Every structure is written in C-alpha cells, then in structure tokens.
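With this grant's support, we have settled on a layout for protein records. A representative record follows, to show the layout.
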Amino acid sequence: SFPIMSPGVPHLQVGGVQYASAALALLRHVWPICIGNVLEWYEYSAYAYVTPEIKRAFFGGDATLTWLGFAVTFVARPLGGTVFGILSDRYGRRRALLLTIWGMLFATVAQGLLPTRSFVFAAAMCTLRIVQGACAGGEVGAISVFLAESAEPGCRGMAIALISMTGNLAFFAASGVVVLLRHTLDDDAMSSWGWRVPFLLALPPGLLSAFMRSRIQETKAFLREGGGGSHVVQNDVVEGDERELDGEHTALQPTGNAASATTTMTTASYPSLRDLAIAISAPAGIAS
C-alpha cells in the first residue's frame, strides 16, 4: 500500500484499516448528498434521451432548435456555478445544495407536465432547461466543497471521486429508463405521453432526496471559520470537535467555493451529448 501524504497529519495507508475506516465514516455521513447528486444528473440528462419525441412535440421536428434546447444548459452552468458558489460561501454548503436539488426537481417535473405544440411552451421548455443548467453548475461546486470539507485528511481524493461516480450512475439510470420505455411502449404511446415518464419519475426520489439533504448538518469547517458571517448559526458546532493530532489542533480549513472551476467540465464527459447528436437526426421512433 502507498502512504497518503498530508502535512501535519498521520499518513493513511491506501487499503489499510485506518483508510477504510475513514472512507466508511465519510460514506455514512455524505450518502444523502451522493444520492441527491445521482438524481440531479439523472434529471439533467433525461432530455437528451427523449430528444426524438421532444423534437416533434415542441420544436416542429427542427433538429437545430432541439439541440439549442439542450445547449442552453451549458450557457447557464457557469452562471449557476458563480451564483451558488457565492451563496455557498455566504450562507453555507448545505443551503446551496438544498437550493440546487429543489430547483432541479421543479424544472424537471415541470418539463414532464408541459403542454406541447406551441411556441410559448417551447420557450418554457428552454427556460426550464436554463434553470436546470444553473442548478447543475451550482451542484458541482457546492458538492465538491462539501465532500472535501467532510472527508478526513488523506481521504479527500476518494471523496471527490464520488461526484464522478454518482454522475455517471445517473446517466446510466436515465438511459436505462428510456430504453425500458422504448421496449415497452409503441411509437405512438412514446410520442404522446411516454416521453414524459422519465421527467415525472424524478418526483418521488427527488422529494426524498431534498428531505434527506435538509437533515444533514453544515460542514464543521465552514462553521468553525465563522460561516461567512452572522447569517449562519454557530450552535451546530460540537465543542472540542477539532481533531488533535501530535499535540496540535488541525482544524480543516474551508476550501472555498466561489471559484467553481468544476463547472467547466468538458463535454466529453457527457455520453448524452453523443446520443443527442444521433437522436435529433434519427428517423422518428428509432431509439438511439
């Protein structure tokens, strides 16, 4: 095994008992955040997998407009990362994560309920996609900092890796739901109402995820440093919680969130983009 070097703290051995204990403790603490991240990216990518139906229902069969309905989310993501990054630094990581899950859930379910074949509702679809993009950008920054501040020194690489793991699991889930629908429903049913199912399915787990996120505590690192000002209540900090190692207090310093560079993730990390490009040019009724 290889030692994990971290200044001022004992070295954890990858694969060792101490590392495994720290990893399990982290997972017990952050699993509601990780489940929420799966749902966020499931909701974000659902559009891409039902583009043939959305193309006909909202954009008159125009592939370019359908693409733009997806692309607007990438315009909103840097803005969302900046806004939610500031909110996260000012009011706390927990509150930012609650806002992103509620915003994503609202926009996703609303897309599944929109009437079709109207310019007004096509514009509404694009507006809801912008909300999703902003929430996705905010989610990446807030969850990165939350996980980094929640992890033990020497275990933060694994903590950050949970973001990619849960995000890709979400893409798998979204594509799986659509494949199941395409094999279960005929083309007419899929075009008339089946495409709404992936959006509406997000409601029950989304509500549960929002509830679980509301019950998590703010990171002690954020609270210990003053919590961005008087807006954050300090009584959640457990006295004496600071870890004392080798006779020195080594309270984890906040990592910051306003610099949400994580919102610039490359489009190559999104398998849904390739599927979208294929789907919008495919004949009606052919699954991508």
Q: What stands out?
A: The chain has a mean pLDDT of 79. Residues 112 and 197 are 7 Å apart (CA to CA). The radius of gyration is 21 Å.
